[in-house]
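Figure 2 data, in text form.
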Amino acid sequence: MTLRVSLVFAACIACLSVSANAQMPWPQKPVKVVVPFVAGGNTDTQARIVSERLAAVLGQPFVVENRVGAGGAIAAEFVAKAPADGYTLFFAASPQFTLPLIQKVNFDPYRDFAPISIIGTNPFVLGVHASVPASTVREFVEYAKTRPGQLNYASAGAGTITHLTGALFLVRAGLQMTHVAYKGGAQAVGDLVGGQVQMYFGNASELIQHSKSGKIRLLGVSSEKRAPQLPDVPAIAEFYPGFRTGTWNGYLAPAGAPKAVIDRLAGEIGKIVREPATAERLNKIGVEAVGNTPAEFADLLRRDAPVWRDAVKAAGIKPD
């Protein structure tokens, strides 16, 4: 065999090898799942519940990694710059898509990520301290209107989804209340229970236990319809049509990730969150399982965008 023929033969073998590798089924190694919040929180818990099942189904570890800071911007920037090969995923939440409205960030949530599937959604629950003489949203609004500027409402931090939801509610209801920003939901709930603040929009998992003890009352949920976990608590939209906020948690990939990988992940996630055992685990933390398609996920992001723009305007927040 001549040298030239040998080189051509070697090149052909190399091309076949590259082609075979490109067609190898995914995943062939561990997958990193980046979570923008601390371990043990609502988002982290969902990531671990579903990633554990994905590992069992797909035969490779799905390793959850918490990259905390800047409201999720640190994690988002990391994933946006990661190789779009399906081995780095972002387990994000609604706040990462509102960040550019309230602070300067080095990523574009709509251009830098490819939606895969939403694991679940949950509304925020309007909780008031037991000392507030109101058992319905309407009674609370009437009470607060006679005390402009005298009542406080809490949030898990300035510019957070809980802050934006509260601000949007005040505008719709025509109320004047003082915003008190905390460094997280736990502190906000603590002061709501203690009576230092009179109102807080929190997760059901944060508030239900205190409602059962009689320290607070749950007046409404921020979703368009009543939440399955709280069927007796009306949607605020029943009083103010069109009112809608909430949060989702789901998987995204860096933009440009292989469509085959995205579609396979979305299909498996849809099956997993509909498993009775998984759905029950999500329900226990106040999450309604979804498991939608990439196209449905993208559509929800488009529909949410104007809602959050209005909320930021209501809160009077301008990007730094």
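Caption note: The first helix runs from residue 3 to 22.
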